[in-house]
Amino acid sequence: MNEQVLSQQPPVREKRVARPSGNAGRILGRTVMWLFLLATAVLTLFPLVMTVSGSLKTGAEMMTGGSLLPSKLQFANYAEAWKQANFARYTWNSAFVSIMVTVGTLLVASMAAYVVDRRDFPGKSLYVTVQASMMFISVGAIVLRPQFDLMVALHLNTTLWGVILILVSAHSSTFFMLQGFFKAIPRELDEAAMVDGSGFIRTFFRIILPLLTPGLGVAGLFAFRHAWNEYILPLVFTMTNPQLQTLTVGLANLRYGSSAAMQIHLMMAGACLSILPMLLAYILANKTFIQVTAGSVKG
Amino acid sequence: MSFKWKRLGENSLFLIPSIILTVALGIYPLFWMLRYMFYDYAGYGDALFVGLDNFRRLMRDGLFWESVGNTFIFAGGKLLLTLPLSLLLAVMLNGRLRGGNLLRGIYFMPTVISTAVISVVFYNIFNSYNGMVNTVLMKLHLVSQPVDWLGPKHAMLTVILVAVWGAVGNYMLLFLAGLQSIPQDLYESAAIDGANAGRRFWNITLPMLAPVAQMVIMLAIIASLKGYESIMVITEGGPIGKTEVMYLYLYKLLFPVSTGSPVAQQLGYGSAVGFASAVIVGAITGLYFFLSRKMNKVY
User: Fold this and answer.
1) Cα–Cα distance for residue pair A52/A274, rounded to 1 Å
2) Under a CB-based contact definition with an 8 Å cutoff, are residues A218 and A288 in contact?
3) CA of A275, closest CA in chain B: separation in Å?
4) Minimal Cα–Cα distance from A192 to chain B, Å?
5) Which of residues 29-48 of A touch B (CB under 8 A)?
6) Which whole number is the average pLDDT over A140-166?
7) Cα–Cα distance for residue pair B122/A50, rounded to 1 Å
């Protein structure tokens, strides 16, 4: 990451005209600032370093506290967590849910955002108002019960599709994000395509969506992150069905296991397994992540 | 005429998935809650209409009001630490700084990691007898005895620190976006007039940042009032209810099985609690919005 991030850094220009008298104070100020920035960075990284180092310690080492770094690297922990603690299953479930939610959210939200951005229809402002208020109403876990009942009625409670549908239903922030991206695509483009005999649906999927790829990428990244990290919803839905647990649920449940105290090293290995994919995606897409989050309050 | 119908058909086709999902999994659950808060309903069997009984019980429910108090302590502590820290980091990183992009990347990293998973890690490193935090503090001779981070005295502080860890990077980025929209020539002319860094911060940065800060603070208030995922994993509201927050209390009424809570499932009363909690969050957000409306003006 260092290389990639550092290469984006703008060239440093030294154009300061330092007053001789203020030099000592300035150096002191700079030093204090750097100490503060570095201390914050160390504190931010501390739990992550602990996770990685803990995942490579033996169970006994973990129990006694001991040193920061493992005495001997125990890569076998990963194999054990993968097999014994069922992380293979959890990872598959997490990946399945996250990918389906990402695809579903992008499809549902982009279709709605396109129509809302390009056309007028009765009830348009009502639709937009409802979507906006969905982002602010927060009644906590209470909605999970009626959602669960609905999934039972549809016989989707024994699969992960229930979780997926519920996560896709919360697509309002993606909707608004994509609507912003659609505004940037000139209307003349789809009008021209339609004049050339391309139908509405064809125009959308063959001409407009491909142009939206960067926006879809960013929105997809956010949807994926949300689904991958979701905890309460899959927890409630998989209570009676451990085979469907996702990484977040399976890992947190290890804490309640009877032998959990002996398995801290496995928990750390599991935590690494569930953090690393997201972290890797973040490092690769660091620039996009930061720009878009930064842009989200600008308007 | 047929043209118009065709357009209407196309519009509906694109909107229907979004509308069905929003109505079935977003709006219907809200009305479900509004209905059952007037019923005595255990979640199975018959629901008995009891009028306002649930709300009378709510008024006398000491545990609920304790959890409301804890929510304020938690949210207040989190905001008091997060907002100044993230603003300070944003101001420091706003200039041209060697390695600034790398630091941004590091500070933002916690926001891509699952709260539940990292809370499992925090639970282990704050452990009193073999946790890394105590090991480090004792090696640095900052404490002589291991601190009981998850005990009644410090548990609230611990969950606040974990919440701050997870939130600082996010608000730093939002502040940074606001800072970058402040015209640079304001600073230059102030520097020519002889204003020092402190004066420039108070007289230019803060007032120019006010509209963005108003939105950011509102988002932070809502998020900290309704967050309970990390508390659920780290302390489950304990010890002796010291970290029980509003939405966690609600969760335990709805899904007692998963938390090992001795109370029976109470969906009717839970609906009333959920409604009251949402009203409290809404009222505080509204109050903040009213009090901060002056921030919206750019000087």
Assistant:
1) 12
2) yes
3) 6
4) 17
5) 33, 36-37, 40-41, 43-45, 47-48
6) 92
7) 9
Amino acid occupying residue A24: A
Give me the interface pTM, i.e. the ipTM.
0.88
Taking the C-alpha atoms of residue B98 and residue A9, their distance in angstroms, rounded to an integer, is: 8
Residue carrying the six token digits 């549902």: A108
CA angle A98, A104, A106 (to 5 degrees): 100
Distance CA A201, CA A184 (A): 20
CB-CB contact of A266 with A254 (8 Å): yes
Strand partners, B48: B40
Across chain B, which distance is largest between two alpha carbons, in Å?
84
Amino acid at B136: V
Picking from B19, B30, B114, the nearest residue to A137 by CB comes out as: B30
Residues 6+ apart with CB under 8 A from A68: A49, A50, A53, B132, B135, B136
pLDDT grade, residue A3 (50/70/90)?
very low
Residue B295 is predicted with a pLDDT of 80
Is the per-residue pLDDT at B298 higher than 90?
A: no
Contacts of residue A49 in chain B, CB cutoff 8 Å? none
B108: which 2 tokens? 């933002």
Domain spans of chain A? Answer: 77-289
Tokens 């969506």 found at: A209
Chain A: residue whose CA lies nearest to B213 = A297
Higher pLDDT, residue A293 or B60? B60
CA distance B118 to A275: 8
Positive or negative, the Cα torsion across A271, A272, A278, A279? positive
Query: For B178, which residue in chain A has the nearest alpha carbon?
Result: A298
Q: Which fold, A77-289?
A: MetI-like fold (1.10.3720)
Residue B277 tokens, joined: 């909690």
What is the interface size between A and B, counted as CB pairs within 8 Å? 272
pLDDT digits (tens, 9 = 90+) for B246-287: 999 999 999 887 666 667 788 999 999 999 999 999 999 999
Contacts of A263 in chain B (CB under 8 A): none
Candidate from B17, B121, B281 with C-beta closest to A111: B17
Note if the pTM is more than 0.80: yes
The sign of the dihedral angle between the CA atoms of B160, B166, B171, B176 is positive
